[in-house]
Design a protein that fits this description.
By secondary structure, the chain is α+β, with helices and mostly antiparallel strands. The chain contains 5 helices and 4 strands. A hairpin with a 5-residue loop joins strand 2 and strand 3.
Length: 136
């Protein structure tokens, strides 16, 4: 095979298969289009607004990841000082006295640099996970 036409979002599949983009044929964007008479119906409009909210949530989650970790309370200040979050990280006590669990949502682009720092400050059991939706 000499060439393929591919619909891509990020290009990661292309890179993984050692392919390169030669030419862009077209660009597209996500749009939600509603029938005017349907939009006037309150029940249908509410359903449409719910769908739009979920679609926006999926788009917002696109470049974000969740992080969970455990930390001794004595190291909590060091961790929170440099830990980004949408508003504030969630901190919850663990069953083991003197320990807490921390959970936050961060931009995926910084996760590779922040995890080593978290580990240096005593974080343990660090889990990074993908997000399907992020409703702000």
């Amino acid at each position: 095979m000499d060439a393929i036409v591919e619909l891509k979002e990020t290009g990661s599949s292309l890179r993984a298969n050692k392919l390169r983009i030669v030419e862009t044929l077209c660009e597209s964007s996500t749009q939600f289009i509603a029938n005017k008479s349907s939009f006037k119906d309150a029940w249908k409009r509410k359903k449409m607004e719910q769908i739009v909210m979920l679609l926006k949530g999926a788009l917002a989650a696109n470049n974000m990841v969740g992080l969970k970790m455990n930390i001794e309370e004595k190291n909590l200040g060091k961790i929170l000082a440099g830990l980004p979050a949408l508003k504030n990280p969630t901190v919850a006590p663990l069953a083991k006295s003197g320990w807490v669990a921390i959970e936050t949502v961060i931009d995926e682009s910084i996760v590779r640099t922040i995890i080593p720092t978290l580990k240096e400050h005593g974080a343990q059991g660090i889990i990074e996970y993908s997000l399907n939706k992020l409703i702000l």
